[in-house]
Amino acid sequence: MTALENKLGRYAAPSSDTEQEKQERAERMVRKAVEGWSGFDGVGIRFLPKGSYKNNTNVRADSDVDIAVIHKGFHYLNDDALRPSDKIVRHPLTSKRYEGADFRAELEAAMRNAYGSDCDTSGSTAIEIAENGGRVKADVVPSFEHRKYYYDAQGRVRYFEGTTTRRTNGEWVINYPEQQYGNGVEKNERGTGRRYKRMTRILKRVENDLVAAGKIEALPSYFMECLVYCVPNDRFNHGGLTPLTDDITAVIAHIWSQTKPHGLAKDWYEPNGIKPLFGPGQKWSMDDAHTLALETWQNLGLK
User: Fold this and answer.
1) How many CA atoms lie within 13 A of 182 on its CB side?
2) Residue 276 gets which letter from DSSP?
3) Which of these, 277, 282, 294, lies nearest to 230 by C-alpha position?
4) Which residue, 1, 60, 91, 121, is the most exposed by fewest CB within 10 angstroms?
5) Where are the transmembrane segments (predicted)?
6) pLDDT given at position 99
7) Helix, strand or coil for residue 240?
8) Tens digit of pLDDT for each residue in 103-116?
């Protein structure tokens, strides 16, 4: 085994058993804090683990937990794609509580009650619970159900169900974590011989190295997951015998070639299959992806 193959094997590894125990403990503690808070009595709440934790793309020693705390009392919607005659009737939200910023404020109160000074509410999106010896850091995201309406191939009104979060600056962010999870499992288990998530972890680890070396600015962890997801399945091993070096070479080469100016990456979608990867409002660009691919190639000494 080459030195590079050995390194890639370490980089491809998921969280250790000890880290997984700490992740699960952090999730249980967040649930307990919310369920025990009297301010949420009578309010429908569901918990949705998401991000790298849920999708099993965490890398070792970088294993935070993301969990959405979702208000089930009502949903926000986007029916801009529908004809006026098909617009959704917005019924009065007679049973709602804690719309918008109010829900975040109540969730902050619940987290401060449970965690005291370990609770940091200064972030624009997530409420952060600090790591300690028994748990990893947890990002708790106050969320609502969201529906994006569209017409299917037969002209019938359908909708994508996702979540929406109000940032402290008033901006709303919409995500589709459950579609992301399902598509990721499909690609990993049946599309790539279980190499998709391994390649994602490798790219995340290399990105960490590049940031530490001052080669690039830090990029969101989710961005690496998106880029690897957009690589066609035939670039990955299917029999379990292909060296990791061959896979990462094919993956990085594809990302680099398709993120050139006028490359096909302009039409890529996030793993949820709903949001354009390089659409308006994203925190990254095709140039970021192109630079990351080039720096990764050079960092690993690929040929």
Assistant:
1) 7
2) B
3) 277
4) 91
5) none
6) 84
7) coil
8) 999 999 999 999 99
Do 19 and 136 meet the contact criterion of CB atoms below 8 Å apart?
yes
Indicate the angle between helix axes 286-300 and 196-212, nearest 10 degrees.
90
- DSSP reduced 3-state for 142: strand
Q: Using CA atoms, how far apart are residues 146 and 290, in angstroms rounded to an integer?
A: 33
What residue type is 70 in one-letter code? I
Predicted local distance difference test score (pLDDT) of residue 64: 81
Query: What integer pLDDT is reported at residue 94 of this predicted model?
Result: 53
Sign of CA dihedral 23, 33, 125, 182: positive
Tokens linked to 285:
């660009």
pTM comes to 0.90
How confident is the model over 213-239, as pLDDT tens digits? Answer: 999 999 999 999 999 999 999 999 866
Give the β-pairing of 65-78 and 119-120. unpaired
How far out from the chain centre does Cα 100 lie?
22
DSSP per residue over 20-68, as a string? HHHHHHHHHHHHHHHHT-GGGTT--EEEEEEHHHHHT--BTTB--EEEE
β-pairing verdict for 172-175 and 157-166: antiparallel
Terminal-residue alpha carbon distance, the chain: 17
Distances from the Cα of 78 to the Cα of 48, 82, 172, 180, angstroms:
21, 9, 12, 19
How does DSSP classify residue 188? Answer: I
Q: Which of 130-139, 219-228, 241-250 has the lowest mean pLDDT?
A: 130-139
- Number of Cβ within 10 Å of residue 168's Cβ equals 12
- Average pLDDT over every residue of 125-151: 92
Report the candidate in 107, 79, 50, 78 with the shortest Cα–Cα distance to residue 225.
50
Q: CA distances (Å), 274 to each of 27, 101, 140, 179, in order? A: 27, 26, 24, 9
**Stretch 52-70: mean pLDDT, rounded?**
81
Residue 145 and residue 165 in contact, taking contact as beta carbons nearer than 8 Å = no
Residue 230 CA from chain centroid, whole number? 15
